[in-house]
Design a protein that fits this description.
- With about 500 residues, this protein is an alpha/beta fold.
- The protein has three domains: about 10-170, Rossmann fold (3-Layer(aba) Sandwich); about 200-455, Aldolase class I (TIM Barrel, Alpha-Beta Barrel), CATH 3.20.20; about 460-490.
- Helix content is about 40%, strand content about 15%.
- It is built from 15 helices and 15 strands.
- It has helices at about 35-50, 65-75, 90-100, 115-125, 135-150, 240-255, 270-285, 300-310, 325-330, 335-345, 365-375, 395-400, 425-440, 445-455, 460-490, and strands spanning about 10-15, 50-55, 80-85, 105-110, 130-135, 160-165, 165-170, 210-215, 215, 235, 260, 290-295, 310-320, 350-360, 380-385.
- The strands form three sheets. A seven-stranded mixed β-sheet has the order 2-1-3-4-5-6-7, with helices on both faces.
- α8 links the parallel β12 and β13 (about 310-320).
Length: about 500
């Protein structure tokens, strides 16, 4: 439990979320393989306080639950920290169960978005978890580790769930990192083969290597489908100087050439964005970057500055082409605002990624038709269409389910499954429209020409597609051979 230097060890795990079906591993060639930024922050913080951290990224290295557990047991850590999204809870619990069987003294601590929104229910259901950290984790985790080692009353640790006499107890208080500049850089050095093993999804960046940065935390808006229970509704940001230092560090030490800002609202402050862009231009930092924004936060002059400073793509939460649906979602902007923002962005030479959602409560044939028309007329280069998922912690989840979620939905909550259908529509209807929207968008000649040009300019995307295509063809051949073999067996 204690290494040769006298340090307590702690292993941080991002568990497998959705295992790719056997024979279809080729999907990994085009999938997103970005590391958990939250674990990188936690690892950096505990190292600053004298612990020896390590990180296991299960899906990036295609590790099974058994393989992850075996690695942890071999390390014999004093503490095991597991980050949990709803879709990964069962695998996280199985990892903890296996580790506890081999190392009963190892303390299992869980955190992440699912815990922040459904911690009490999760701790009640899974006895394998010893403690749960709610909300923003760095300060709470350090306070918990200190309390465990000093024997301090756990009531002194804010935002914590723990077991006492068969009950799940919750402490009060909400420690918020108000000054993000005080936090150490994420522990990128703990990632094996960083940054080359950690690729964004194909076509989501111009050239790599790629790294992620969260320049701010929190979102002041209250869209009905969003879960803000981890970082809250108060926006806190790194200073422009600190963000620039992280960018330059990644560029100079790791050769990173593209940054993906993963803030909920990168453009929460125009002044901060302008200051960062000016720093990039003043120092001649040649990196491309992408970010997310609301359609009501962009203006032509700001977009022009962002473009000069290397902005390559902006993701907008467009959601739908129906004003009625936007109102239902509590989105303040309307379709006309979204269309104008996309056209301004296109005119500035910045790529637009539209984030859409299908199947939200109130969705009907009319709203879907409006979305189809909207998608076809705006100058958007790439779209991401999710299947509406009522995530725990979101207002719409509480509206639909109250406080409990049905067991059969836990492992399906990844935005790729319809776990609910609005009145008057079936899941089959939604799936049919889902395929139509994507097909209609990507069959547009201008979209095809764009991606052809991108592959010629950045051949590594073509190489990833070719590897995916070869794997798909091989899987198809295996499937046909298996079907032919089955037919012959039945005939005999």
């Amino acid at each position: 439990m204690v290494d040769s230097t006298g340090q307590q060890s702690i292993v941080f795990v991002n568990p497998p979320y959705e295992r790719i079906a056997a024979g279809y591993e080729f999907v990994r060639h085009i999938a997103n393989l970005s590391p958990s930024l939250g674990l990188l922050h936690l690892a950096a913080e505990v190292r600053l306080h004298g612990y020896r951290p390590s990180i296991i990224e299960s899906d990036i290295f295609n590790l099974s639950v058994a393989e992850v557990a075996a690695r942890i047991v071999a390390d014999r850590p004093a503490y095991l920290g597991i980050t949990l999204f709803t879709v990964g809870v069962w695998n996280g619990a199985e990892i903890a169960r296996r580790v506890k069987a081999a190392l009963p003294e190892t303390v299992v601590i869980v955190g992440g978005p699912h815990i922040s929104s459904m911690g009490q229910e999760t701790m009640t259901r899974f006895a394998e978890f010893d403690y749960a950290v709610l909300g923003e984790g760095e300060k709470v985790l350090i306070d918990l580790l200190s309390a465990l080692e000093s024997g301090t009353d756990l009531e002194e640790v804010p935002e914590l769930l723990y077991r006492r006499g068969g009950l799940i107890c919750r402490t009060r208080g909400r420690p918020i990192n108000r000054n993000l500049d005080e936090l150490p850089f994420p522990a990128w050095d703990l990632l094996p083969d960083f940054p080359r093993a950690y690729r964004a999804a194909v076509f989501d960046y111009p050239r790599g290597p790629v790294a992620t940065i969260a320049a701010s935390r929190g979102c002041p808006f209250h869209c009905q489908f969003c879960d803000t229970s981890t970082f809250g509704d108060r926006v806190r940001s790194y200073s422009p100087n600190k963000v620039f230092e992280m960018m330059r560090h990644l560029h100079d030490h790791y050769g990173v050439r593209h940054i993906m800002f993963v803030d909920d609202l990168f453009l929460a402050s125009r002044l901060r964005t302008e200051a960062l862009c000016n720093l990039i231009l003043e120092h001649g930092l040649t990196m491309s970057w992408s970010c997310a924004a609301r359609v009501d936060t962009v203006r032509p002059d700001l977009l022009a500055l962002m473009k000069r400073a290397g902005c390559w793509e902006i993701s907008f939460g467009l959601e739908t082409g129906s004003d009625a649906m936007l109102e239902q979602m509590d989105k303040s902007a309307r379709v006309a605002d979204a269309e104008q923002a996309v056209r301004w962005t296109h005119a500035a030479g910045i790529r637009t990624k539209g984030l859409f959602m299908l199947g939200y409560p109130g969705e009907n044939e009319e709203s879907i038709a409006a979305t189809k028309a909207f998608v076809r007329r705006i100058p958007m280069t790439i779209m991401h269409l999710t299947k509406f998922t009522p995530y725990p912690g979101s207002p719409i989840y509480r509206t639909l389910y109250g406080t409990n979620i049905r067991d059969d939905h836990w492992e399906k909550m990844n935005g790729m499954n319809f776990v609910w259908a609005p009145e008057g529509m079936s899941v089959a209807d939604l799936d049919r429209h889902y395929q139509q929207i994507l097909t209609w968008f990507y069959r547009r000649p201008q979209v095809g020409h764009y991606y052809l040009g991108m592959m010629m300019r950045y051949p590594h995307h073509l190489w990833r597609l070719l590897r995916f295509g070869a794997g798909f063809a091989a899987a198809k051949v295996r499937s046909l051979a298996a079907g032919r073999g089955g037919l012959l067996a039945r005939q005999q």
